[in-house]
Write a structure and sequence with these properties.
The complex is a heterodimer of chains A (247) and B (223). In chain A, 58% of the residues lie in helices and 6% in strands. Chain A is an alpha+beta fold. The N and C termini of chain A lie far apart (41 Å). Helix content of chain B is 57%, strand content 8%. Chain B has helices at residues 17-25, 38-46, 68-78, 86-109, 114-143, 155-170, 179-189, 192-197, 210-220, and strands at 6-10, 31-35, 57-60, 63-66. Chain B is globular and about 50 Å long. The chains are: A alpha+beta (247), B alpha+beta (223). The interface between A and B is medium-sized, with 28 and 29 residues.
């Protein structure tokens, strides 16, 4: 029986969280080695396990992989979450990269000074509301399907859910700003009317997407307390990372 | 006959240059529409052509693609420059993400204020010779083959050689201690499609100068 993938990173989200999400969504159990000291990190480098001297590191299928996007692409392909052909794959890549950009802004904000951090996080919420989420809402609206690409669950759906939840942690109202969503969330009696008029209405907004993807059994399990999902960065996490990477 | 891919960006390297290199290496002719002012960017946004309101954007095979990595992945797969299976692909991806990370630092150098430039250059040179180039030299040494992955030309070789040219432009001595990388650079440069791209008059863009920098800043509203 194949060994479980082994993840090596800090005990926090950072650049590893999307990898945890994808493995969890694919129903793949994995082990984690948490970096807590500078010595551990230097040992990893000296052992030659870090191609460019950096984590995340994932060891699986006889490979020693670094670089977040390389790892994510490999997992998506392996677990059939990458679309059915090249044209679907490029859409998955486009959507995944867009959400990764947004989430990386949040991850990096944790390391700024308090004033800068607040400013950056406000910018993230603004970008989510004005640029990213409208783009995804339009995609869902245009095809009216349950998933972003090819009417089938893919890496893109996992990333989008992860991004929605992360932005909601910064601003709980972020989805309710969408005109379509306003009806569904604030005036449920009118939503029922709209839904009765067009039974596909409930499928075409991000709030419905979020509910739907969150109910997928593997995702539901990952969202429970006690899973390997990590918490938002706190001061202890930032301190550990700074110490280990000598930032 | 299929339309040529059409690239939308400003008339400079930036984040579009790796796409130009890859298309050229694959022997694919392409057209370019250059953004000259911020109004041009506004127009593309208002047309709904830019999914996340950003360039690069490439029109290809009936699609309007954004996000560099997505675009490059598509081109590499389409023109068979992405390895023979998922494991080779994973290696290629790991290498090219490293190339992209270092290239990012070089791209930003032009935006560094003069007072900080010297320190930034020292940092770039350090990363280049202590972190990235040794990693790639080691890969080539480990298998002794002519190409980075699978004993066959792939996008990894193209992207790395493009980076080596960029490194050389900053300081040719940075390549001094990397004989295998120098050999790879010479070998890839001799491939007919790449050789053609390296000639004057090709779509290859020159390094950013002050005039183009001012233009880019205006288009993208940068300070």
């Amino acid at each position: 029986m194949a060994a479980k993938p082994k993840l090596c990173y800090f005990r926090g989200r950072g650049r590893m969280e999307s990898i945890r999400w994808l493995l969890a969504a694919a129903g793949v159990e994995f082990e984690e080695e948490f970096i807590e000291t500078r010595e551990q990190y230097e040992k990893l480098q000296k052992d030659g396990r870090l191609l460019f001297g950096q984590v995340p590191l994932v060891e699986m299928d006889g490979m020693v992989l670094t670089q977040t996007k390389a790892i994510l692409s490999y997992l998506a392909a392996k677990y059939d979450l990458y679309g059915k052909d090249l044209k679907e794959r490029v859409r998955v890549d486009m959507y995944a990269d867009g959400t990764l950009d947004l989430m990386m802004m949040i991850a990096l904000a944790a390391f700024k000074t308090p004033g800068e951090k607040e400013e950056n996080l406000a910018l993230v919420v603004k970008k989510a509301k004005t640029c990213y989420f409208p783009a995804f809402e339009k995609i869902l609206k245009d095809h009216g399907e349950d998933f972003l690409v090819g009417n089938k669950f893919s890496w893109a759906d996992v990333q989008l859910l992860e991004a929605i939840l992360m932005v909601e942690e910064l601003d709980a109202s972020v989805l309710s700003d969408f005109p379509l969503l306003k009806v569904v969330c604030e005036q449920p009696h009118k939503a029922q009317e709209a839904m009765n008029r067009d039974k596909d209405f409930s499928k075409i907004c991000l709030q419905a997407f979020k509910t739907r993807i969150s109910s997928i059994p593997t995702i539901k399990k990952f969202l429970q307390p006690g899973s390997q999902r990590k918490l938002p960065p706190d001061s202890h996490y930032v301190k550990t990372v700074r110490k280990v990477l000598q930032l | 006959m299929a339309a040529k891919p059409k690239l939308h960006y400003f008339n400079g390297r930036g984040r579009m240059e790796p796409i130009r290199w890859l298309l050229a290496a694959a022997g694919v002719e392409f057209e370019e529409e250059f953004l000259e002012t911020s109004k041009d960017l506004e127009k593309l946004r208002n047309d709904g052509s830019l999914m996340f309101q950003q360039v690069p954007m490439v029109e290809i095979d009936g699609m309007k693609l954004v996000q560099c990595r997505a675009i490059l992945n598509y081109i590499a797969a389409k023109y068979n420059l992405y390895g023979k299976d998922t494991k080779e692909r994973a290696l290629i991806d790991m290498y090219i993400e490293g190339v992209a990370d270092l290239n990012e630092v070089y791209i930003h150098l032009i935006l560094t204020p003069p007072s900080e430039k010297a320190a930034k250059i020292t940092e770039i040179k350090d990363k280049t010779t202590n972190r990235y180039l040794p990693a790639f030299e080691k890969v080539l040494k480990s298998h002794g083959q002519d190409y980075l992955v699978g004993n066959r030309l792939s996008r990894a070789d193209i992207h790395l050689v493009e980076l080596l040219y960029t490194v050389e432009e900053l300081d040719p001595s940075l390549l001094a201690n990397f004989p295998l990388l120098k050999a790879l650079k010479a070998r890839i440069s001799n491939l007919p499609t790449v050789k053609k791209f390296l000639q004057p008059g090709s779509p290859r863009k020159p390094p950013m100068d002050e005039k183009n920098l001012a233009k880019a800043k205006e288009i993208f509203h940068l300070k």
